[in-house]
Amino acid sequence: MNKTKKLIFDAAVKCFSKKGFHKSTMDEIAETAGVAKGTLYYHFKSKEDIFKFVIDEGMTVIVNEINDKTAKLDNPVDKVAAVCEVQFQMTIKYIEFFRTVLSQMWGDEERQLQLREALKKYFEVIEINLKEAIDKGLIEKCNVEVIAFNIFGVITSTVLYNNTHEDVNFDELSDTVINFIMNGINQHY
Amino acid sequence: MNKTKKLIFDAAVKCFSKKGFHKSTMDEIAETAGVAKGTLYYHFKSKEDIFKFVIDEGMTVIVNEINDKTAKLDNPVDKVAAVCEVQFQMTIKYIEFFRTVLSQMWGDEERQLQLREALKKYFEVIEINLKEAIDKGLIEKCNVEVIAFNIFGVITSTVLYNNTHEDVNFDELSDTVINFIMNGINQHY
Amino acid sequence: MNKTKKLIFDAAVKCFSKKGFHKSTMDEIAETAGVAKGTLYYHFKSKEDIFKFVIDEGMTVIVNEINDKTAKLDNPVDKVAAVCEVQFQMTIKYIEFFRTVLSQMWGDEERQLQLREALKKYFEVIEINLKEAIDKGLIEKCNVEVIAFNIFGVITSTVLYNNTHEDVNFDELSDTVINFIMNGINQHY
Amino acid sequence: MNKTKKLIFDAAVKCFSKKGFHKSTMDEIAETAGVAKGTLYYHFKSKEDIFKFVIDEGMTVIVNEINDKTAKLDNPVDKVAAVCEVQFQMTIKYIEFFRTVLSQMWGDEERQLQLREALKKYFEVIEINLKEAIDKGLIEKCNVEVIAFNIFGVITSTVLYNNTHEDVNFDELSDTVINFIMNGINQHY
DNA sequence: TATGAATGAGTCTTCATTCAT
DNA sequence: CATGAATGAAGACTCATTCAT
Predict the structure, then answer these.
(1) Topology of the domain comprising A51-184
(2) Do the Cβ atoms of A185 and B183 come within 8 Å?
């Protein structure tokens, strides 16, 4: 990703998260990026294309960061818990990105499918560990795909939903949802 | 709600759920409702106004239906479980309405606040029962607001996310998420 | 064709003939018609659609006018000559329309096909008479489709090509081309 | 014309003939030529300038080729017929070039004038022979400029118009139009 | 000579809203 | 109550042209 493309990427994340995909205009993205409108189209085919790039690129960064931070753990249950904690912190850190993700999660069918594709990478991290935990008899059998999806949903939506309050205690919030999740997969944590 | 307004309400739900708020046009809503475009403006101030009406009216119907169906239960934990089950069925029944709700949950700030206001009624049903369960020592102490919100999120998003698959086993899905939730609030169910 | 549509039709003919299809803008057409730009789109699907309407409607008017003015003639050769004369006068009368037609005759494939479809009506008038003349032994056998097309081409292009000169003697011009055509179909006229 | 300029010339002819002047983009011409877009501007002032060059250069090539192939004939009537035949073959050979010519013949005024200027060279070949034929009493008196123009028009437009059919019999077509033309100038051929 | 990233004016098109009937 | 023609502001996208390298 060269310099100009990076400028556009950052601007797009900012705009999409602030106003959603539809209300963000190419003019705004260009102005935010500090480039001419034509430049957007030199680097991207369309607004849709920028969105796709933002999601794909963003999810890759995030999945890598999660993998890095949970690499040293062996026990799959510990790993799921660690992923949750990291995901919680990541949502706070990249809150604009995740607002972009969730805002498009239930909109246009086409953009929805792109999103699911990009989220796969993330879900897989959790699914693998859930499966291993089940195989080792650490947690009860369950539909790992559904649970992985919900773990992501619970964490991100909780952070976003509560982010508007002025005096959020994110530590307590983190404990609450991770407790809910770990209990949910039948592991008093 | 007179006949014409009802036609518009149904049409709006259908359009909003199919294409989201922004991609739904007043022309489409009018055509779907079988009325002239001007008629929309006779009954509603604006497109925003139709959205607001749809959400408010829809949530009222749903909360009432939930209350009806869980009225006879006494035990607060049973009641939470029952609300979950009913909510699961309701999401299937009114799937277009809930897609509309979720599609706007993380978008435009103004519409987000309207949504939260409307959802309060639903959350309260769960919060009251969670509190009672905590008071009676049936479940552990927790942040009831956060949990109520997540119960709603887990159920609706699971139904919507899996609705695209062609051969969904909703019964298994229901067991999975309700199990996850009830475990989550520390009640092996 | 109601009043507004007629305004747009006239404006479109004027613009297309003056600057061609591509260089004519919807803004210009709207301004020339004295309506708002949105009004164009209330009555027509697209710029392309306006073009199609202009050609179809225009050719219908012209073919009708030609048929009216040549109705009373019986002899097919006389009729072809009469059609030529009328066509010559029509090209002068509706010169802007015919410039529009010729300007698009060799451009975009799609618009070209529309044009051919619309011109069929006109060609048929000539083809029928040529065939009859051949059948009656009045002129030699020839490929009537090719000749009909060329009769149209010779007349319209001659008028348009010479229209730029300031002091055109249209009567002499008319004699020249009609003589050329009638000789061409082997009828010293 | 050096190598790069020749690449651009060929690419421009191809593009202009396929999509017309307006729909052809500098990007396409550059890509077709296999050079960078900036290179077009190194060799030409503008898109208009490329068009002008294409027409001028093309017509020169064609007029030379016609002169070569009809040089040995003496009789002016034979020469006109020969020019027609050669022109027919040339239109088939350089069909894309002639589509470019005709597509701009009735459009933008400025480009129209350039075209007429370039066509003069061709018309003159015919005009000279027509005049000589008239002077020698071989054909009747006529407006040679109008006839020369129409001879060009009839031949090129017939080839182009019929080129879309899949199974064109160009020999029959050639006979038809040349017969039409030679009869037209009053010379049963 | 040649390149290709960057530009921004210009275009088509959409659509919520108004209003006379 | 209901209509639908008309509006115009706004937005996505195109593309000839420039210029630093």
Answers:
(1) Tetracycline Repressor; domain 2 (1.10.357)
(2) yes
- Give the number of other Cβ atoms within 10 Å of residue D24's Cβ: 22
Is 3.80.30.20 the CATH number for A1-44? no
Instruction: State both tokens at C16.
Output: 């297309």
Start and end residues for every CATH 1.10.10.60 domain found in chain A: 1-44
Determine whether domain B47-184 maps to CATH 3.30.930.10.
no
CB D44 within 8 A of CB D50: yes
Cβ atoms of B88 and B178 closer than 8 Å: yes
Looking at chain C, the domain(s) classified CATH 1.10.357.10 span 52-184
Specify the CATH number of the domain C52-184. Answer: 1.10.357.10
Quote helix, strand, coil % in chain B, to nearest 5.
80, 0, 20
Quick check: helix, strand or coil at residue B51? helix
Q: Inter-chain contact D102–C106, Cβ cutoff 8 Å?
A: yes
- In this structure, the number of other CB atoms found within 10 A of the CB of residue D77 comes to 19
In order along its 189 residues, chain D shows pLDDT tens digits of 899 999 999 999 999 988 888 889 999 999 999 999 999 999 999 999 999 999 999 999 999 999 999 989 989 999 999 999 999 999 999 988 898 899 888 877 777 888 888 899 889 989 999 999 999 999 988 999 999 999 999 999 999 999 876 788 999 999 999 999 999 997 654
Residues on chain A touching B157 (C-beta within 8 angstroms) = 105, 149-150, 153
